Amino acid sequence: MPGAAQLRQIVHADFNRSGGAGRDGASLLDADQRTLVDDLRSGAALTNPVAPTSTRALELLAEYNAVEKEKATLRGDVEELDSLLRATFESRTWRLGRRLTSLRRRGAAVTTYDRWQESRKKRRERVE
């Protein structure tokens, strides 16, 4: 088995995903954030003042929150569509549903799709 020195000669440090430099993501932090991480590691954060969160960091957090909400909504939509498809194709009456859809086009019936759209609208209203 090669020793640590030999491994460092063979494996480039930038490709070491399991440890070493860059493991803590320090290159992604601004100066105040790096100071905070260092203070947390040393215990000085208990006595030193902490710099206020930057405007850009707050903007990024707001964007992240919006993306997470959208992902949750999309996951819900996918689950609903999966459920609708599963129910439609597991049912032996899917042909009847197709016939009702054609009647609806003539204004005569409410379809499963209409019920799904209504439940989707109600769920979105609850989320907001």
Tags for this entry?
single chain; 128 residues; mainly alpha; 0% strand
3D structure, described in words:
65% of the residues lie in helices and 0% in strands. The protein has five helices and no strands. The model has no long low-confidence stretch (mean pLDDT 78).
Are there runs of 5+ residues with pLDDT below 50, and where? Answer: none
Tell me the β content.
under 5%
Number of helices: 5
| Number of individual domains | 2
SSE succession: HHHHH
Number of strands: 0
Fraction of residues in helices? 55-70%
The overall average pLDDT, rounded, is: 78
Question: Largest sheet, described in full?
Answer: none
The whole-angstrom Rg is: 27 Å
Structural class: mainly alpha
- Terminal Cα span: 58 Å
> What sort of overall outline do the alpha carbons produce when their principal axes are compared?
elongated
Oligomeric state of the chains in view: single chain
Quick recap of the structure?
By secondary structure, the chain is mainly α. The chain is built from 5 helices and no strands.
Secondary structure blueprint with pairings:
Blueprint (H helix, E strand, L loop, with lengths): L3 H7 L20 H12 L12 H36 L3 H12 L6 H16 L1
Helix pairs in contact: 3-5
